[in-house]
Amino acid sequence: MVFFAPFACTFAPSRLTSMAKKKQKYYVVWQGRQTGVFDDWDVCRKQVEGFDKALYKSFDSKIEAMKAYTDDPRRYVGNKPKTAPQLKLSSLQRPPIEDSVVVDAAWNTATGDMEYQGIYLPTREKIFHRGPYPDGTNNIGEFLAIVHALALLHQRNSNLPIYSDSRTAISWVKKKKANTKLDPTPRNAELFELLDRAETWLTTHRFANAILKWETTEWGENPADFGRK
Questions:
Q1: Where are the coiled-coil regions (predicted)?
Q2: Any binding-site annotation on 165?
Q3: Half-sphere exposure at residue 188, Cβ-oriented, CA atoms within 13 angstroms
Q4: d(Cα 86, Cα 104) in Å, to the nearest integer?
């Protein structure tokens, strides 16, 4: 079952369409010349070799590595790592994972119209946009945007992570249920149909994409923001 069909999207970056078939190691660098998740040891080594208090670790899967990268490194390298004995998470200033999709929604307080979109972070190119839908909410838009991105990446056999700045929408996706208090009206019937389809998609598909919080205070405005504040 396809959640949103057809996808009115001609953008198809190579990272969305290709996934490594063979098993390999993934390397998380929390502290080095460049931080992030790397799939090549030689590239990782250049970030940490000779770097004072470098902090890094290898993982067997990309998903595990991406989760670790957004987590406290002390959970993975021990409470007292020799490489950084006084490490504080706040001092790492980790950037977002560059190879990812970022989504956002906008809600017009005057009209009640809602729309949402997603971008490919490395190029900032828009990969989908939907709406406006009447009588919506921002949380519904954020939820639909995440599921739309999941469905799009699923079509392309891609496990890229997805960023959203809505904790509520992320929790809805994890629960596979949009816990909205919005009342159905004749004007938002299409929106509720999309919610039903989104929830059905979540319950009938398995995905390995990490759904991550966009940390606005650390990284600045969500790149998928509509810029209407």
A1: none
A2: yes
A3: 19
A4: 36
pTM of the model: 0.65
Q: What is the DSSP letter of 21?
A: -
Per-position b or e across 170-206, b if 16+ CB within 10 A of its CB: bebbeeeebebebeeeeebeebbebbebbbebbeeee
User: 99 a known binding residue?
Assistant: no
142 belongs to an annotated ligand binding site: yes
Q: Where are the domains of the chain?
A: 26-75, 101-213
- CATH, range 26-75: 3.40.970.10
pLDDT in tens, 89-118: 443 457 888 899 999 999 998 888 999 999
Which amino acid is located at 24 in the chain? Q
